[in-house]
Each structure stands twice: as structure tokens, then as C-alpha cells.
Design brief:
It contains 7 helices and 19 strands. The protein is α/β, with parallel strands linked by helices and about 350 residues long. The strands form 3 sheets. The protein has a 7-stranded mixed sheet with strand order 7-8-9-10-11-18-19, covered by helices on one side. It has a 6-stranded mixed sheet with strand order 1-2-3-4-5-6. The relative contact order is 0.15.
């Protein structure tokens, strides 16, 4: 019985192989299960903590281990484009464009082909290339920004806005402080200043750990670690940019705070400047991605599931709905869901 659904993770069951993608805490995982991890952001890496057989790209594993400072065992790493066979099923890693090492997983069984996108970004950035597009029977796609009101400006426009604000703050003797995640966005911000400005970039230690993995994988980044004498001196002297996480409570007294997130398009942020720089696809990018992939049916997880499903059906004529909770749902008996 072929199944697909949510079971504390994306579960795809061909009848002969059971695969769980990006599991979350909440249920124990049997050691014989096969767990796939799409990228190194902490809300997707719970699978690394389990005793199950695990699969990810090498860069994802590197970033996770660098940030957690411990080795993960029982992991088989894949390069983008590489496949692994489990029973009657082949699983291939495809670029997702979300961050270094992020991937989609294409699952091919004797009866159908499924693509689980994980978090995707459909435009090139300074550190990543846009998500790959492969046709499939069933598409499981994120809906984080799947509302028609989320249409991001061109990336070069956002880059220019960031540079303009940064130069103004430095001119006013303030240190621009970008508060972001430990990996993904901060490396793009560092690269932005490396490419377009001759300004020292200082990073907190956690971000520096991830920076080093990016450099090991061919992404050139010039930065100073704030825990080193050189980094501390740069922050004391000013005339630099400081990139850290939102948990950093040891900011320079003369810093000006900024965040970079897609939510900045519609959400107000107190006491800081916000730029709509996202590592996710916006609404139109998601619609265009589905159009080019040409699935028979679309399952949506996270974010605006109902709204995006309705838009896919009305604009593309493709059956779509939220990813169902796993009970006895058969993949080939998908119930048509719309709003």
C-alpha cells in the first residue's frame, strides 16, 4: 500500500521501503527506518540525533557538526545529483538553492516519482544557485511564503538597499549589526560586503564556524571572528559590519540592529531595520516552480498551505492540497482538497 503524509516528518512508503524526511521530535524512530535530512537549519536536523540510518549531503553534515561540535554517526552522505537505492526505491539529491548543501529529494519507485523540495529558493544568490527543476508525478512543496502578497523585490535591489543603509550607519559612527541564523543567510550577507564594499566584516563564533565550512566547499568569505584579538579590535574601532545571531546579547554599544528575512515584506520590526532578504521562494516563484515541474498532484507543507493549494488549482489546474496527516491515506487515492 503506497502512502504519503505527515508522521512527525514527511513519510513516503512504497510498500517495500519506508522513508522519513526531515523528522521532528515527537515519536521514536526505529533503527531500521531510513531518515533523510534536507539541510542544516536546526528545525530540520532532528534526524541527526536518532539512531536510524541517516542520509544528507556532505555539506549539510559538515555544517551541523561544526555548529554542534560533535560527530554524527550512521550517516551516508550524498553529492548533489547522486542517488541511493533502498529496496525497490531510488532516492536522488537535487539542489534546493536554500543554503549550502540544501537539497530536494527525488523518490522513484516502480509506480511513481515524488519530489520533496524541503525549503527551496528559486533564484541565484551570492552563495547559492537556484533550485533544480525536475518533472515528477507528485510534488511535496513548502508554502512558507505561499500567499499572493509575498512577492519579493529583485535580489540586487535588496542588496543595494542593504549597502545604502550600511554606509549611512557607518557614516554616523554606528556599527551595522545584522542578526540572522548561524548558517545560510549570514554567509550571503558576508559575501555581499566582500563583493560590493571594502568594509571589514566581523562575525560571532557560531557564524564563523559555518563560514569555515562554506570556505571548505569553495565559497570565498573574508571575515574576522569576534572572539579573536583582530575581531575585538575591529569592533572597538568601528567602521565595520557585525554579523551575529539573534541570541547575541553582547553587542557593541554603538551598534544599529538590522534583520534580513522575508517576513519584513509585511511584518513590522521594533527597534531595528528589516530587509526582505529571504532564502525561501516567494509566492510567484512557487507557482512558477510547480508550473515547470508539471506534477499530477501537489502536497503542501508549512506556511500558507490552503491558500497556495487554492492558487495552484485555479492558476495551473493542478490538483493540490495540504499534506495529510498519516493515517491510512493512499498516495494513489489522493483526496482532492481546495479552499
Amino acid at each position: 500500500m503506497e502512502k504519503i503524509g505527515w508522521a512527525n516528518g514527511i513519510l513516503i512508503d512504497s510498500g517495500k521501503s519506508r522513508l522519513l524526511f526531515d523528522p521532528t521530535p515527537g515519536r521514536p524512530l526505529h533503527p531500521e527506518w531510513n531518515v533523510f535530512i534536507t539541510h542544516a537549519h536546526s528545525d530540520h536536523t532532528y534526524g541527526f540525533n536518532t539512531s536510524a540510518r541517516k542520509f544528507s549531503t556532505f555539506a549539510t553534515l559538515q555544517i551541523h557538526q561544526a555548529l554542534r561540535k560533535r560527530e554524527v554517526k550512521s550517516v551516508q552522505t550524498l553529492q548533489l545529483g547522486e542517488s541511493v537505492a533502498i529496496g525497490d526505491t531510488k532516492i536522488r539529491a537535487l539542489n534546493a538553492g536554500h543554503m549550502l548543501g540544501s537539497c530536494q529529494f527525488e523518490v522513484t519507485t516502480p509506480k511513481f516519482r515524488v519530489i520533496y523540495t524541503g525549503d527551496i529558493n528559486c533564484v541565484d544568490t551570492l552563495t547559492t544557485q537556484a533550485a533544480e527543476e525536475e518533472q515528477c508525478d507528485y510534488l511535496i512543496i513548502e508554502g512558507t511564503y505561499g500567499h499572493p502578497s509575498y512577492l519579493f523585490p529583485r535580489r540586487n535591489t535588496i542588496y543595494a538597499d542593504i549597502m545604502r543603509w550600511t554606509m549611512t550607519e557607518i557614516k554616523e559612527k554606528r556599527i551595522p549589526n545584522f542578526q540572522v541564523y548561524s548558517s545560510g543567510k549570514p554567509q550571503e550577507v558576508v559575501r555581499l560586503f566582500n563583493v560590493y564594499a571594502n568594509i571589514p566584516v566581523v562575525c560571532s563564533p557560531m557564524i564563523s564556524y559555518a563560514n569555515e565550512v562554506y570556505e571548505q566547499n569553495g565559497v570565498s568569505l573574508e571575515f574576522l571572528d569576534s572572539s579573536t584579538p583582530e575581531g575585538r579590535k575591529a569592533l572597538k574601532n568601528g567602521n565595520c559590519v557585525y554579523v551575529t545571531t539573534g541570541h547575541d546579547d553582547r553587542l557593541p554599544h554603538n551598534s544599529s540592529r538590522a534583520v534580513a528575512t522575508g517576513w519584513a515584506l509585511r511584518q513590522a520590526f521594533r527597534r531595528c531595520t528589516a530587509f526582505p532578504l529571504s532564502s525561501h521562494a516567494d509566492f510567484q516563484q512557487l507557482i512558477d516552480f510547480v508550473s515547470r515541474v508539471k506534477p499530477r498532484r501537489v502536497y503542501i507543507f508549512a506556511g500558507y498551505t490552503d491558500i497556495l493549494a487554492s492558487q495552484i488549482e485555479s492558476k495551473l489546474g493542478i490538483q493540490a492540497g495540504p499534506l495529510p496527516a498519516m493515517t491510512q491515506t493512499k498516495l494513489l487515492d489522493f483526496n482532492r482538497l481546495s479552499t
